[in-house]
Design brief:
binds adenine; alpha+beta; 2 domains; Nucleoside Triphosphate Pyrophosphohydrolase; single chain; about 400 residues; 18 helices; 7-stranded mixed sheet; Endonuclease III, domain 1
């Protein structure tokens, strides 16, 4: 049996809704304010960006928290702040170092946009974030949610911050079955919240909604209605509609790409490759890989090296990685290269491979160009390798 303890905890704070005169949308939203602020004051988690909500910290945390859980973000946030303590420092960040610090968080465009925005802020705003929703939203990587979050949390400006958490909470409170994937649904919610949110407590109000979405009105499971300060005004809580609301239309199918990944070992080094400057995982490093499923015997040809240069080819396990619009279905091979017979031969495997550099004789295939042979330590410490390759990087000896 569910015990609705909120009735005592929030005594006197609740909107008393009469059956013969239900609240309209606006009244229902307005009625959230007192219990929400009361609950947030009592229950808010202590979080590094929350306890010291300086604009730069709020910005970085909000960007990291997109698509990443709070607990996973914490160590990244602390490291990032140590590495780039100011917006100016971020503007001058070295790209590979920035990406290395971001490694594991995924969605690397977030980090690229942070640096682009930091440059604009340094050039035009004296290295500070502007206290204005309209100016914040013009910066790279900042949409209406993030602009609203920074404006409200860091500057206490009464602008809503509607992310997936807030969409879920508000749709449920209102019993709204509209598709939350629609921009119009989010737009309407932003307008409605802007009208009714308290003018002097924007920070607590928005964080309260986000916090309820994270801790009580949780995604992907039964909400903890017994602990919810909004229970008394929530149509979904009262009617048990949580499985149906929010409604989210099915996502478009992702394209599936079959890829074969190579761990190419030469003495104590492995080959990596820098990806092109635009497109998926732009300018990050990767283990060499090709589209399709070559057979073991075809591997030297596919890599553009002579059979005689290959000591062994062994199969690696299959794995998958899901990006937003594409899924990689991967298999792999470990390829161990043989040292040249002529001990004095200069080999492409010694460092950066360059066009025209002779290796084991005349055959420098296309595949070798652009490979970089690095030690395990260099791989771990210097080169940003996306999570997609984790199942294979962990197999590197
Ligand atoms: N998720 C998104 N923004 C957040 C914030 N400011 N605090 C906690 N969780 C969040």
């Amino acid at each position: 049996m569910v015990m609705y303890s909120t009735e005592h905890f929030y005594d006197g704070l609740q909107a008393l809704e009469r059956e013969d005169s239900p609240l309209d949308r606006r009244e229902r939203l307005k009625a959230m304010e007192k219990p929400l602020l009361f609950w947030y004051a009592a229950r808010a988690r202590s979080l590094p960006w929350r306890d010291k909500p300086l604009p730069y910290r709020v910005w970085i945390s909000e960007i990291m928290l997109q698509q990443t859980r709070v607990e996973a973000v914490k160590p990244y946030f602390e490291r990032f702040m140590e590495a780039f303590p100011t917006i100016r420092a971020l503007a001058e960040a070295e790209d590979d170092y920035l990406m290395k610090l971001w490694e594991g968080l995924g969605y690397y465009n977030r980090a690229r946009n942070l640096k682009k925005a930091a440059r604009i802020l340094t050039d035009t705003y004296g290295g500070c974030l502007p206290a204005s929703f309209e100016e914040l939203i013009r910066l790279p990587g900042i949409g209406s949610y993030t602009a609203g979050a920074i404006a409200s949390i860091a500057f206490n400006i009464p602008t809503p911050a509607v992310d997936g958490n807030v969409l879920r909470v508000i749709s449920r409170v209102l019993g709204d079955r509209e598709d939350i994937r629609k921009a119009s649904v989010k737009g309407r919610m932003e307008m409605e919240l802007k009208e009714i949110m308290p003018k002097d407590k924007a920070s607590q109000y928005n964080q309260g909604l986000i916090e309820i979405g994270a801790l009580v009105c949780i995604p992907g499971g039964e909400p903890k209605c017994g602990e919810c300060p909004l229970y008394s005004v929530c149509l979904t809580g009262r009617n048990g509609w949580w499985k149906e609301i929010p409604y989210k239309s099915p996502q478009k199918k992702r394209r599936i790409e079959e890829r074969t990944v190579f761990i190419i070992e030469y003495q104590d080094k492995v080959a990596i490759h820098k990806r092109p400057p635009s497109g998926l995982l732009a300018a990050l490093y990767e283990l060499p890989n090709v589209e399709g499923r070559p057979l073991a015997g075809e591997v030297p040809f596919v890599l553009g090296i002579k059979k005689g240069q290959v000591e062994s080819v062994t199969e690696l396990p299959a794995s998958r990685h899901v990006f937003s619009h594409v899924e990689w279905h991967m298999t792999g091979y470990r390829v161990v290269l043989r040292p040249p017979e002529d001990k004095n031969a200069r080999t492409v495997f010694e460092g950066k491979a360059e066009p025209g550099c002779d290796s084991f004789g005349e055959n420098v295939g296309e595949g070798l160009l652009g490979w970089l042979f690095v030690t395990r330590e260099e791989l771990a410490g210097t080169y940003p390798l996306p999570n997609a390759f984790n199942p294979y990087t962990k197999l590197i000896g």
